[in-house]
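How a chain folds remains the central question behind the approach discussed here. For one protein, we set the task of working out the structure tokens from the amino acid sequence alone. The sequence in question and its structure tokens are set out directly beneath this paragraph.

_____
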Amino acid sequence: MKRVRVGNGCGFWGDSVDAPVRLAGAGRLDYLTLEYLAELTMSILALLKQRDPNAGFAHDFLGVLDRLAPCLKAQPSLRVVTNAGGMNPAGCGAKARDVLAKHGLADRRVAVVSGDDLFPRLDELIAAGHTLNHIDTGESIENVRAKLVSANAYLGSMPIADALALGAAVVVTGRVADAALTVGPLAHEFGWKWDDWDRLCAGTTAGHLIECGAQATGGLWVNADASTDLSNVGYPIADVAADGSFTLTKPANTGGAVNFETVAEQLLYEVADPARYFTPDVVADFTTPTLRETGPDAVAVTGARGRPATDTYKVSAAYRDGWTAAGTLTLLGPRAVEKARLSGRIILDRLKAAGFGYEHSLVEVLGAGACVPGVVTAASDPPEVVLRVAVRDANKAAVERFTKEFAPLVTAGFPGTTGYTTGRPQVREVFAYWPALVAKSAVPARVEVLG
């Protein structure tokens, strides 16, 4: 039976730049996927493109592709599928083609998948009756229309499969569903029908398991320890059969772990209702797959069942929502927790006395249970803690003033105050998330083979 090996070497923009090269070299892959996008990433890329029309994509991909060239030469059938295109897939694709040509690989076709960017069409869509109301609150998008910076539909896997059918060796997309990077190659290779819900669910399950990279191979595993060897962690591979059943594994002689726990933990990652995981391709039921350890670092996944896809795409939009800054200080010695909390209050009290208030403020004492308030508490008075104070407000000047109140505590605060060596906190613009739905019929995907 024909099998297809899909490995994912990148779980987000900022993941290991060495992992894709190591995975492609050792994984015996048919497809290497690279997942770069998150909701915040899209708004950042949108601003970058506003400043420079040639920007707007995850530029790390070009360096990775440059280093992958020897693997692509040695493995002519290896194909790369990535959403690194972000807000400018055409620009990213053109740069990728240049990288391949530099290495004598100009014969490898680069295809670009676009159509997800709805921002230039917002007024047209709204006028046509596509409300784009907030999914959770029902609020009208008109309330934030003037502050929007991006709006992208999550496309499915069909245009990726179409690009591969046109002979593309590298497929660069904009915003697609994360699992689509895996489902597209599988549908292309096996000829899956677009209403074969069980196979599409199986492919989605595989894609969901590998989309976050090493998070399925020991990263964040509840029982990870020194023996897990995360310094040499291997990235995940889905070895898939035509019926959708697959084995999740990783390259030999790498660190990490693939077992029932690591796979089950990733299967439920970012899932609200496991029985109804909505994607553009299928409504996946993650309660149906069976996980079975079949050997060292090998888990077989079978029995996935899916339901018909909806007639809408999810839309991820972002809008400007004020300014924020956060600063830290270290407090040590007796009563460190008490001194830290008082120091945070001093900062906010001094700002209030100077005439500055904030829409949102937060004082946290790291080391005393602040990461999960009320869940984990310090067993005793710790010898040192980190004070973190953050504010958010529409008034940028007020946030800038906030950043000037940390340094004075080094000499005018409590004894044992230290840790202020990196300058004032940085003021950053806040981008708020706006989820919505749009009819699939209003969002035609486009596939273009460059050159």
In short: The chain has a mean pLDDT of 96.
